[in-house]
Design brief:
The chain has 12 helices and 8 strands. The chain is α/β, with parallel strands linked by helices and 371 residues long. The strands form 2 sheets. The protein has a 5-stranded parallel β-sheet, sandwiched between helices. Strands 1-2-3 form a 3-stranded antiparallel β-sheet, with no helix packed on it. Strand 2 (52-58) and strand 3 (65-71) form a beta hairpin.
């Protein structure tokens, strides 16, 4: 008959084995999560054309997916602008951050590229060219500069600004915080986003489970509000920062609208929410962006309601905040209808010499419309 000491040692051994198994399982799970959600971005030269390719890889083998976007010599996801000859064409220029750039999907799958293809297929009696000045990690100050720097090459008739949820916060980034951008006497504190607020969520396994949980909640029309960690307008402790940022942003926005008007260029905006806005079922920045558009008589459209209504299939990349192919297609269809079908027309110059046959984007030709 085993002694009490022997029973204790057996029990201790069983506990130790269980702990070792649990630790090994955790290590394996963490490794698998790392392989699934790790993200890398690289730039390489295409040996055939000599052009730079931006490659975004999410996950590692066997769960990896790569997106490839070819850049021109100015760093934009488009053709070489120096070779463009306007002739009698209408030029529409989209400008914005990584959502306009098309982060996470191939260059021919982002919403700007889709609007380009569908618009060209529709307007067979008129030359329409669409250009993409999307640049990752930027906000309105840099986006204004991009339009000004390429203006002589592209001669735009219409400029459409993509406004994303974090454009206010991005004014606090070092590249955007030149003294000329900040109102006199205004100081804006640093901002820490939701990824840094989770603490233990920096473990890949926890992040993996969180991403999956957020995806399930969005697809099942469940609302979970994390915006106090993500949106400066939703954080009641940052009211002063929010006011300063809105003041700064409006100054830049007004200057942008005035500059385009003086050049005879139409101005419009597309207002884009984050994944966390859809998760929460509300979009605090939307009211601010809409108010600016109305104040400066800028045609606008917002896609928050669309994405909130069409939650499944999922419109976002699972382990990244950007749109997947479906999300880009949803947004492209909404922008296309706004530009070419809505009444009153936001851009009447796109309705002139319109072809008799209207081609809906779901039936539009898939051929490229490169200038």
């Amino acid at each position: 008959m085993p002694s009490a000491g022997s029973k204790f040692r057996d029990a201790l051994k069983a506990v130790a084995i269980s702990v070792v198994v649990a630790v090994l399982a955790l290590v394996v799970a963490e490794s698998c999560a790392t392989f699934a959600i790790e993200r890398h971005a690289t730039r390489t030269k295409d040996p055939a054309t000599g052009r730079t390719r931006y490659i975004m890889q999410i996950g590692k083998f066997p769960w990896s997916r790569n997106s490839i976007t070819t850049l021109n010599s100015q760093g934009f996801p488009d053709v070489e602008f120096a070779s463009v000859r306007k002739n009698n064409c209408r030029h529409v220029v989209f400008v914005g951050d990584s959502f306009v750039f098309g982060d996470g999907v191939d260059g021919d799958s982002n919403f700007v590229a889709l609007v380009r293809r569908w618009g060209t297929a529709r307007m067979r009696g008129q030359c329409i060219r669409v250009f993409n000045l999307g640049e990752r990690g930027t906000t309105i100050n840099r986006q204004m500069e991009s339009v000004q720097q390429t203006f002589d090459m592209l001669s735009p008739d219409i400029v459409i600004l993509g406004q994303y949820q974090n454009d206010l916060i991005d004014l606090t980034a070092p590249a955007a915080r030149a003294d000329s951008l900040l109102p006199a006497g205004h100081e804006v504190g640093t901002w820490t986003n939701v990824r840094d607020r989770f603490g233990p969520a920096n473990l890949n396994l926890v992040r993996f489970l969180l991403y999956q949980g957020f995806g399930i909640a969005i697809k099942r029309e469940m609302h979970y509000d994390l915006l106090r960690h993500w949106s400066v307008l939703a954080d009641t402790t940052r009211k002063a920062d929010a006011e300063n940022l809105m003041h700064t942003y409006e100054g830049l926005y007004g200057a942008f609208a005035k500059d385009l008007a003086q050049r005879g260029v139409a101005f419009g905006v597309v207002i884009i929410p984050s994944k966390f806005d859809v998760l929460a079922g509300r979009f605090p920045e939307e009211a601010f962006f809409v108010e600016l558009a109305r104040k400066y008589n800028v045609p606008f459209m917002t896609v928050f309601s669309l994405l909130d209504q069409k939650r499944s299939p999922y419109a976002f990349l699972m382990y990244d905040g950007h749109f997947n192919e479906r999300g880009n297609r949803l947004v492209a269809r909404a922008i296309y209808d706004w530009m070419f079908n809505s009444s009153p027309a936001p851009f009447p110059q796109l309705r002139k010499a319109e072809a008799a046959t209207t081609v809906h984007p779901t039936k539009a030709s898939a051929r490229s419309a490169a200038p």
